[in-house]
Design brief:
globular, single chain, MetI-like fold
Length: 272
């Protein structure tokens, strides 16, 4: 029998939330954006900076709409670099992290090289990529992936190494094969860490795409930023920066949505 309240309505319906969790997240994002715009406009009202220093939010919005064709045409190139670079960082970083954990000689020989490579400023490598691979799409993608793959690699290694030793001892006592230990114990245990690394890599991929266009491009949002800075066109610069922030946020939330399905069993998902 279905339990009812005093009014006769089912208790489950009475306990159902009026606003879904996804709707609440959207509302909080909109509230955060409204707060940022209010602070922006408030700074203009209080300090009254020149328009070439800090344009008004409305001016940036109007300029974005007016130059939407230009921004869209250049954005196709930048988005391609970001998405392809992020994809390459995932398909390189995760298997390399697995190899470092699974093969001791790879950990001793390759991992130090990767750490040293990550310490090199990628802006310094960008001209070399242009010399090696030409002035086109490929060097920009490589710059993007070289910046984004390291957090994925480190997160994969850390997650795979973080398994409880008692679980490994139990598996050894039960004479489980190493492949089964990896597939059923190490990899599931590492998934929250791996998805966290991919979420960090999304913002780094956006940064990498713009750095690549600063050095080796005649198209893209990074190229537009360089042109606009030379003419002190701050309004279009703000427009591009806001678009980049939106793109990075969307990529982050897409990975977060995938994370809910991949690691739905994890405590970080159950407590939300």
């Amino acid at each position: 029998m279905v339990e009812t309240s005093i009014s006769g309505a089912p208790s489950a319906a009475r306990a159902a939330p009026l606003i879904s969790e996804g709707s609440r997240d959207v509302l909080w994002v909109l509230a955060s954006a409204a707060l940022a715009i209010a602070l922006w406009q408030g700074s203009i009202v209080v300090f009254r900076p020149p328009a070439y220093i800090l344009p008004a939010p409305w001016d940036v919005l109007v300029r974005t709409w007016t130059d939407r064709g230009l921004l869209l045409s250049h954005g196709v190139s930048t988005m391609g670099e970001i998405l392809v670079g992020l994809f390459l960082s995932i398909i390189v970083g995760i298997p390399l992290g697995i190899s470092i954990v699974a093969i001791p000689i790879v950990q001793r020989l390759v991992y130090p090289i990767v750490i040293a490579f990550n310490a090199i400023p990628k802006v310094a490598l960008a001209p070399l990529f242009v010399v090696w691979f030409g002035y086109g799409f490929l060097p920009r993608v490589l710059i993007t992936s070289s910046i984004a793959f390291f957090p994925i690699l480190v997160a994969t290694v850390s997650g795979l190494m973080a398994i409880e030793p008692d679980l490994l001892r139990l598996a050894a006592v039960m004479r489980a094969k190493k492949s089964r230990i990896f597939l059923h114990m190490r990899l599931p245990q590492a998934m929250p860490s791996i998805t966290a690394g991919v979420k960090i890599a999304t913002s780094l991929a956006v940064i990498g795409g713009i750095i690549g266009e600063f050095v080796a491009s005649d198209r893209g949002w990074g190229f537009l930023l360089v042109q606009a800075s030379g003419s002190l066109d701050t309004t279009i610069m703000f427009s591009i920066v806001i678009i980049l922030a939106v793109v990075a946020s969307l990529l982050f939330w897409l990975i977060a949505i995938a994370e809910k399905y991949l690691v739905s069993w994890h405590a970080s998902q159950r407590t939300r």
